Amino acid sequence: MNSRWSRGTKQCLVLGGMLGAVGLMPLTSQAQPPANVLFLLDNQYSMQDFPTYLPEAFTPGYSPTTGTAGNPGYNDPKYGHFLNTGCSDPALVQAMSWFDKHSMDPAKNGSVVYDNDPSFASSFFDPNSFYHSRGRRVSWNGNNEDYPYSMSVDFKSAVGNTDASTACRATWNHSGDYVKNRTLLNECVACLTTKGWWRGPITPPGTATGALGPPQPKDQPELPPEARRKWIVSGRVLNLRPPGFVSARKALKDVIQTASHVRIGVASFGGDRGWFDPAWILSDVRPHCEASFPSINEAELNRTALSNAVNNTLFRHNERSLGETLFSLGGYFSSQNVDGRWGSWFDQSVIGNTNWGWPGQPGGGTYDNPYWPYQSGGAYARSSDEWLKGPYTDPVTGLILPGQRWEAGGTQRSICSADQVNAIVVVTKGAPQYDNSVPITKMMELLIAQGAQHPDDTPLTFDPVNPRYNPNSGGVNYCDWFEKSPGVLATKADCDYTDYNWPTGLAAGNKNFMDDVAFFLSHADLRGDLPGTQRVRTYVVGYGSSHPMLQSVALAGQGIFFRADDPAALRQALEQALTEISFATP
After folding, report:
1. How confident is the model at residue 224 (pLDDT cuts 50, 70, 90)?
2. Among 466, 442, 580, which residue's Cα sits nearest to residue 516?
């Protein structure tokens, strides 16, 4: 194994279920300068989902299948089908047995608030309130997707109701039909009072919003039935199984509060900017250089501000653009503001080459999008400023989308000295998606010129010519180094996935470029103003996922992959990542 690769490079650590003591971290001597660590938090909308959907289990024949307004079985065209509702079906009761509001054990009754951050407008979640939900997530007030909703549009408050009857009536928007016949109302109130949850109507498949939501974007596969089921649940239920984003941001905030001798920044995936989507940097790496060594100035580090940056993450992105975000963060860690290094590589207006981005068709570009809105792939990333684009204000929503960010410069540099370790720690729910708008050909050209090698010491190769029919196109794909299921090795083809993932490259064995980007960051010298090679490692925490691509990204980035299957394991994985970074070499 090449000595340039850190210890544990090929490790895959699974941290669900069992916890070990990792202590305060990192453990490195404070005679060394602190590492520069930027936490990258997945903000794709699936982070709103529960780790396990609420159950659709039912006993055949237990509930009526037809009925009139106000009765179980009624199919209401406005509010959904009241089929298999209630809380008494034996199959459903068994499926919900992980929660018991009458238990004396907080691990069963959910009486402990999961995240009581005082900066929020409400707790997550009030044990004495009832929340509207779908089977997949707490109903969200975003674009009127899920009515009635309980999650605010900015994810900083959860609106509950302490009165069971009022919560139930909102399901049918207080329609008088359900007052004339109170059967369903009585069922709902009884369930909330005795069980702490009620399973309500199911909405039809499709893209409807409001009371018949949630919609599924047209470029995504259809939602399963359990995702479309309406529920009302006590905050106690949510405290035991919070949405993914609630547990992820809580774990990250907890780690930020305890991390020692480390500079910290926070970022998430950027908004949809067409082709390349630059990162959303929520907090620059801090504290500033003069307040970082020999000891960290706590006031300048400002852990509260870093936690607030985590809280500012908007979990509504329609893409999981890990590769594009890593590329953007490479620019942030570069010396662009000092010597124009990043622009000298990727400014297409200067270089005059508009075909780098794709090892695709002879004139550049790729195949057309097979999914809505069916864009042409022929003009892939040909804008002169594609890789350096500035901020943009969406004319419809008014949302300011980020452009390519650089370090602030001066004492606010992203990298202070040549002997620091630089790392990105990714927390993500799954494989990257809609994430290939990066200048792959130019990155590979730069690395090959410097003699970059794979971890088995073989030279990096890349041939962008006629990739559709080229069996040796090269690039980076380590997916066949890892298992896709216990005892079953993945193949390179497992990371060539194209379903619901446009655009992609055309070369077999390297259609997705997220691991190529991580390889570039861990091998290229990103700064011309410091001696040595200033690279950035990538560590990946798969929250409920160990997709081979995530593992390939970590290996290519000279980091480590961790899988975490529960909130406690997620926090441990983040702590362990910081410990590993403290042992890494610059």
Report:
1. very high
2. 442
